[in-house]
Design a protein that fits this description.
single chain; about 130 residues; alpha+beta; six-stranded antiparallel beta barrel; two-stranded antiparallel sheet; about 20% helix; signal; Organic solvent tolerance-like N-terminal domain-containing protein
C-alpha cells in the first residue's frame, strides 16, 4: 500500500513539472527574419514590390507605367485601399512599383484586367 501511494505521488509530481514545458511537435515556430507586422503600411511615394505568376497572361495584362488598383482585407472585408504605378520588371516573377494613393500593406492584392499580384514591402522578401 505504501509503495502504491509513493508511486502515485511520484506520477502526480512528474506531471506537475512536465506539463508547462512548451512543445513544437505539431507547429513550426514563427520565423525570426519576418520583421513586417500586419500594421506596417506604405504611403504615397513609397517603393513596393509585386509578385506574380510569371505567365504570359500576366505579362500581357500588366506593362510598365500601368496603374494597378490595390485591394486589402480590412475589418473582414475586401476593400480598395490604394493605387500603385508599375515602374519596372524585376526578373520573371516580380515588379517594382510606387504607391500613388492610399496605404498599401504587405499581402495586399494589386489587380488589373484579370491579373492579380501580391504586394511585398521589402526587397529582401523576394526569394
Amino acid at each position: 500500500m505504501k509503495l502504491m501511494f509513493s508511486m502515485l505521488m511520484l506520477s502526480a509530481l512528474s506531471l506537475f513539472f512536465i506539463a508547462p514545458v512548451p512543445v513544437d511537435a505539431v507547429s513550426y515556430p514563427v520565423s525570426p527574419h519576418r520583421e513586417i507586422s500586419e500594421h506596417t503600411a506604405m504611403t504615397v511615394g513609397a517603393t513596393v514590390y509585386l509578385f506574380h505568376s510569371g505567365t504570359p497572361d500576366v505579362k500581357k495584362a500588366v506593362a510598365v507605367s500601368d496603374i494597378l488598383v490595390v485591394f486589402g482585407e480590412r475589418h473582414g472585408e475586401l476593400t480598395e485601399v490604394g493605387k500603385i504605378k508599375v515602374r519596372s520588371y524585376l526578373g520573371d516573377c516580380y515588379l517594382q512599383g510606387e504607391v500613388l494613393e492610399g496605404e498599401v500593406r504587405h499581402d495586399d492584392v494589386a489587380r488589373k484586367s484579370g491579373a492579380a499580384l501580391l504586394v511585398i514591402l521589402k526587397e529582401e522578401m523576394m526569394k
